[in-house]
Amino acid sequence: MAAKKPKELPGKALEGIKVLEYGGFVSAPMCTKLLADLGAEVIKVEPPWVGDKARRRGPFLQDIPHPERSALFLYLNINKLSITLDVNTATGKRIFKELIRETDLLVENQPAGRMKELALDYQSLSQVNPRLVMTSITPFGQTGPYSTYKSYPLNTYHAGGEGYCLPGGLGWLLSSDRPPIKMGAFVGECDTGVSAASAALAALIWRETTNKGQHIDISQQEVLLNLVRFDIASFNTGWVESRATRSFPIAGLMQCKDGFVQVMPLLRHMWEALVDLVGNPEWAKQEDFDNLMARFYSGDRPSGVTQQEVNKRLEKWMLQHTKEEIYHGGQARGLAVGIVSSVEDLFQSKQLKARDFFAEIEHPETGQIPYPSAPYKYSETPWRVERPAPGLGEDNVQIYSRRMGYSQEDLVRMRQAGVI
Description:
Elements: E1 18-22, H1 27-37, E2 41-46, H2 71-76, E3 80-84, H3 90-101, E4 105-108, H4 114-117, H5 122-128, E5 133-138, H6 153-159, H7 169-174, H8 187-210, E6 214-219, H9 220-225, H10 229-235, E7 252-256, E8 259-264, H11 268-277, H12 282-285, H13 287-297, H14 304-318, H15 323-332, E9 336-340, H16 343-347, H17 350-354, E10 358-363, E11 367-372, H18 396-403, H19 408-416
Parallel strand pairs: 1-2, 1-4, 2-3, 4-5, 5-6
Antiparallel strand pairs: 7-8, 8-9, 10-11
């Protein structure tokens, strides 16, 4: 009996697109991660010996600091190849330009002006490859008085304006004297990566019709300003959004027996649904409270004292019930209510399990662990894992020798010289 032919896997949306990543930490790797997940070949260029600084950023699996155990690095670099290269050397610069000849898209997040110092700016590289699309990510863009400013995630997040409105809701009510904060983890950097990927794809489409590449200048501040575009527009009408206004006067974010829920009685019938959910207590039938809600739904905001009295009674009931009880009970009654999910909640989510959102990925250093997959499902070009995050310089031989023709002796000499 003839052996069955292995089933052919479907193609991927960006199959054939070659991307070079000369960046690190979060914003550039997030951009190229999205492209790699769609099937583009992404070659990650890392400094010899030390690699991407994300490799040194925790948390680490089992709290063991190791360049191949960083959760941040492992997540951001699935489906990529890794080579080491010092472009500060003449040989390294020459090899970089050799790579550019066969590259469709270069993504970098070096400090503004650094690529020009290296003679690897768009003007120089487009001479090597006129069809090159180059995406440059910096804190404040390539031009303007802030273009050379250094920045950390805290700086750029607040420069974008969203930090001024945090913490809102219950955080503001409980700690109104707390200073503004940024969003947790690296949300600003990830948002920048998403915007950069969208812009790069649009430029690649334009290139297909014009046969010309172009340079994309991404300002992280301006990306984050997009999070507060409505607040900026509202400012022109006289409304100033702040932490104090990021709350709902009745209910809102509330603590319950096993966490938090967001309860939003936005309309009169939703308030009545909330009253029914909490058991139609006598206090809710009192004329004062009924008049309070009538004023509220007519646009007359209740006074702080009355608001606190309503919320105090609701809080007492919420603390006696679980998130699931409140969520399903409220939904069944037509009340706008949602669960504030913890990471553990998400891993246990029946919805996410039903959609196979978490993918088990085997890595030589960490073993098999679950990762978030993609936030989309293509019918013809599905997302899949081709390989885990690469080890530092794992693909030097494949790229330099098998693809570019360098001999083993060349690699030894370049390694001794610190080029790779």
